[in-house]
Protein: DUF3473 domain-containing protein
Organism: Saccharophagus degradans
Amino acid sequence: MSNSSVVHAMTVDVEDYFHVSAFYKVISQGDWDKWPTRVEENTLKLLDLFEQRKIKCTFFVLGWVAERFPELIRKLSEQGHEIASHGYSHQLVYTQTPEVFREETKKSKDILEQITQQPILGYRAASYSITRKSLWALDILDELGFEWDSSIFPVHHDNYGVPGSPTQPYTIELENGNKITEFPLTSAKVMGMSIPAAGGGYFRQYPYALSRWLFERASVNQTRPLIFYLHPWEIDPDQPRVPNASLKSKFRHYTNLHRCYGRLERMINDFNFGTIQQSLGSVNIDQNVHISTLR
């Protein structure tokens, strides 16, 4: 493990394999209950690993999951991990109206606060879908009492991203004068291009040596805090296969599932991880941007 005083954020998006955006076209929300759930078993496997390594992390919990597995969420909270919201139904923010987004996000926050008896202060959008089309969501997060967000990916991607936005934690000044802290997803500059290096599918698709090199490069030799993320289904090579998905979706979802857990163990050995609050507390946030500059 790195001896750096900078703490990187280990984060888990607590959702099941049938929730993912890659399968939206073949699995409707109304059919979710028809699929065998595996999120509890896989999350507990991650929890055991984090407990063995004495790491506390941030779990972004989908409200749909919390309703069905409240004891799981309570256990995560009681063992000292940070609980944050991943929304309720894993819908892309920019496909929702502000009214629907507000209703669903409040519902998820209320469910999590009732289970944990703790204030829920952090949020992450499904598939990082706070983009230039949906920056209005930050105002709603502020209205609902969230203090920080981790939804903005400073890269080009077909489904998400705010290219050119800051790559380190910063504060966003909203139109009403209030501020919300943004902890963007990790990217590394390579030959002038922003390369995603935050985990998830990239972590499974890249060779581990490349993931480690990109993470090290983005941290500027362990002087800047970064975010790493993954999903419980990414350590589950035996999950049911979804028929009729596109080849692109299958590639994104199934590549190297059997390698992810072992790579995660190596990542934990190579870098110093904690919760988002611990990570933000390890540095001074000195960058402040007005929301208009992100548009």
About this structure: Residues 71 and 115 are 8 Å apart (CA to CA). The chain is about 35% helix and 15% strand. The chain has a mean pLDDT of 96. The longest helix spans residues 98-116.
